[in-house]
Fold:
Amino acid sequence: MTPSATPDSPPPSSPTANNENAESNLQPFFVLHKPIHKNSSRKSTQSAKTRRKIDLSTETPKSNKSKGAEQVEQIVDDHHYQQLRVEAFDIIWSKIEITIKEVLRGINRNVFNEIHQWVRESFAAIRSTAGTLNSAEFTCPYPLSIDIDYKKIFTGLVFTKNVEFVDDLLTFNDLRLHLKSQGCHVVNLSSHDFSAKSGIGGCIRSLLRQFVMVDPDVADITILASWYNEPENFDIPLVVIIDDMERCNGSVLSEFILMLSEWVIKLPVILVMGVATTIDAPRILLPAKALNYLEPCKFALGSPAERLDAVVEAVILGTNFGFDIGHKVTVFLRNYFLRQDGTVISFIKAVKIACAKHFVTEPLSFLCSGLLHEDCHGFLLQKCALLPESMREYAFSLPSCEGLDKTTPLSAESLASGISEIMKLKKNWSSIFMCLYEAAKFQKKQLVDILCEALDPDAYRTRSSLQRRVGEVLAKSPSVDHYSATKGSLILQVIRKVRDLPMKQLCQLLQIWGKHSEEIAAELHEKVKELQSLLKSEEENNGGQADVEGLSKMLATRRYMNIQRDKGKVFDKAVLLLESMIRDYLKPIECAPFHEIICFKNVDILQSALVGDPRRMIQVDLLKSHKFLLCSCCTKGGTVLLPSMHDTSIMYTLAQEHGDLINLHDWFKNFKSTIVPPCTSAKGKMRSPSSKKRKHSNEPEDLPDALVQARFCRAVIELQITGLLKMPNKRRPDYVQRVAFGL
Amino acid sequence: MDKENSGQVTKRTTRASASSTPSKNTLSNQEEFEDMDKENSPQVTKRTTRASASTTPSKNTLPNQEEFEDMDKENSPQVKKRTTRASASTTPSKNTTDYRPPSLLDNLVFREQQSIISQDELFSTFPGRKCQILELLRLFGPINSSLLPIFLYGGPSSGKTSIVLHIFKHLKRPFIYASCRTCHNPRLLFESVLNQLLLHRKDSSNAYSSAKRCDKPSDFVNMLRESLMEVINSLRVNSKKSGLKESGEQGIGGMVYIIFDNMELVRDWDKDSVIISMLFKLYDILKMPEVGLIFISNNSPDTYHLNTGSVEPIPIHFPEYTEDDLYQIFLRNQRDPKLYSSFLDVVLKDSCKITRCIDELSTYFRLLFEKYCEPLSGIGRVPNQDMKSKLYMHLKPHVTPSLNEVFRVPSCLALELKENKEKVGKKRNMRRLGDGVVPDDIDFHMSVSAKYLLISTFLASRNPATLDAALFDSAGGGDNTNRKRRRK
Structure:
């Protein structure tokens, strides 16, 4: 706390590049705490170390931009093409979004149907117990005296398998809609409704608000009972969904359950509770007397990894959307998912940001929308022909075109065909990837992991060279395991494991391969077919073996050995086939020319967009508020403080001159001298637009002290709210402490 | 509809018989008149003897008449009530919901014919509670006798509420029930009582509001007195009318009883002492002998710090059930009493040592009984001695684990048993591993940084508190890796 402690232990002021990188991976978690020092000036100038000044002048290194970059910027800024790109983004993203929604809904559909079935059954059970009751008993205020066995509240525990609950909000909302469409009364309660602060009244109130659509002044469950006994509501199950049980206050939730137990049968409430962790959770949260009333049933949603796989499969591998993400971005997204967030929603959000950034930064990206067309090549041709010379030049100067033949004319024709070529490549790539993934499925490998490797252009190159080598070795001595060297490569692991598959699975695998290979090339399909027939004959042999069991033992063993050998042959062939498929067709999109047009590769942009870094933005914005306000009075000021600037902005700029602690008195005096010009003769010129009151007074110089103080206080509070200041404490009543330094 | 019609018809006939031909069954009629006199006078006679006296003599002589009369006794008071209510309930707005016309009887008394239960039935429904029931019946006394406040207490699921409700079923007297659990704040409690007294129902026509807004205990007392007066008056009118015509025996009397259940919860409310003392003093405050107050609580009356100077409620303790009682309780309503009794022989003794709470035991027994019956599926259902020991051997390994479960989450055991058996084994094993070992494959997703955060929190929790400032304060202390994460 002492100010002297800080200079003694300065945080590592010049982190190595590696260090910085590692830290930036974790950024969202300590965004608010540790500034990254870009300039080492602080370290060198010991005297200035208490002056935590932010120098914005280094912020924009625009001056050293190359001519080419300027040209690109020009293209980027072109209004017409900007418009086109926005349109393309809208089209493509809406398609992707629809697909994702469909996929997510599909994942949950089975579970939802199961839950609905269970709700029906539970309701029937409740009704059968209630059969002997008459209508008066349904509304009586006293509890029905029945056996405890029938007094249970049916409770569905839905395991969400994710400690992050963001995804589940959406899921449970969908569940509500699903059950509602099936004719149940459904409400969604969140853990906020079960807080200790609002107590039992809070959740009952929320229940009533959603069921009865009234907001009574007292939360009374008898209202629900009499509402339910109205004929139009009667005889329908009441489903109460609690999003995240573990976040609820245990005592409130148990009180809620006990209260429901007094109304059991009379109010056929069926609980559905989301549980993030394990089956022990209710046991930990609730006391035994509440648990006694629960009659649980277990449901499991798909795990986040499964959802992610499904989404990735649909978006990246499935239909062609004309937008792709590169290897590095994929790896980043995967890590972001695994290490930091783990929710599919934020993954989708990240993809959306990537998509948006792609269309903003890539001048030619509007061509992507053409890929959705029926006559893709023709459309592209037409578009490319309309391109101005500069743009075409830009296209051919893309890094991926370096390998291109220099003699290729910079024509629209070649550009269009280049792009169509990418699409063809991508199509083949995804088909082969699916073949590979089907094989990997038997080994319980994650789709995303394999995807990352399959997208890696470097891995592709090493793989192909390695395979060539292995092929040579294989010709000499087929018994050696050549892949042992390639331990790290998932793809090679998968290929190797194909050999160990059981017959039945191989059969399945070949079938799927047959389906996928159909779309690629006839000869490949032929090969798969051939292998399938071979396998079939093998199987028949196998079946035959069972018949000849009566034959002499020796004969049988020999035959068995033969079969084993034959079987090995089939598997070898399958492995070879997969190898050749991967070698020939699993060519990452980043190896193709012009791929930059449809493929987003810039990890840094995505990362900074995802991290957000709100405090930094607040500081920067405060220091140059006139850039955003765009008022006429302050623009010409530059870095000089003007009284017309916004109070908070003035205050923050003044605070830059102070150290960790700011003397309130000095600060106030500075502030006052800024907004009240020292020269009294300058009358109307220095009027502050922020105080409208003053406009009416004729003489600005007698700005009352109270008003200045009020403005000062408001600005201080605003700075405190933004988290840049700590209010004075008892020990130092006349100082405020700065919290964030630097950017 | 039929019943009402017949009721009316018979009423007419009895009326006729009562006025014109009193000689027909003189004995019983006279008896009844006599009775009524007695009941109107504060003196009390034994009702049971009278009832037997009235029914026995006529039975043999006039079977037809007897039948009519019996029906009369049961039907006519109701019909009567309904008509009087229709005329008396000038209070508007209540009859708007036509599917369930409100009436005093409907709301305050158990209505259905079949729900009238005899005393013997009462005893058999609640084994082991005979002396409490007798005590309660003695305190309630015959109809129209006043009642000092009663305080029932005992552990959870020891039958307090059920017995009281059943006694009212048996006695057929008007009562009001308010549970402090459902009515989770004073206002709800007050309004719930008033609503029931005023026959008010919250529905869409009155925007689900209460009959009267009542926040303060003092308001409650005033309003309660008013509405009680009204109710008691109408009851008096009622009983006079019906009492003159029929026997007073079937009438509901002039007493109104108010039951406050789950009193222990009041102590968690704001200003609990004010409300508790108000409720316990209610008898003194109201000074209405026609009102009987019954309090039900988990805790003994000592815990309420009752102020002296007011009439202290009569405590009735519901002790824990004995083993024999439990045996009786669990045996009733069983489909196969023989099998179940052999099951109880095995399990009851041990489990009694741990808990005697019916709710807990019944959940536990339900699971165990399923296990117990497993080997029986093929064979006939009646176990002999040999079979019993066999069953016991089968059950034995399950007893202790289930006992362990029942106090943690009996529910989840049931669920797992039902849901997926193969997974259960795995889960069990994982739990067996002990709390220290985290199984490698946790079932749920957790991001890597969240795991780190958890670990660092755990580490931080092991640090002495004195180090907290040094490690985690934003400005102070050493350079720790935790610092980055944990700084405010």
Observations:
- Chain A touches chain B through 81 residues (CB under 8 Å).
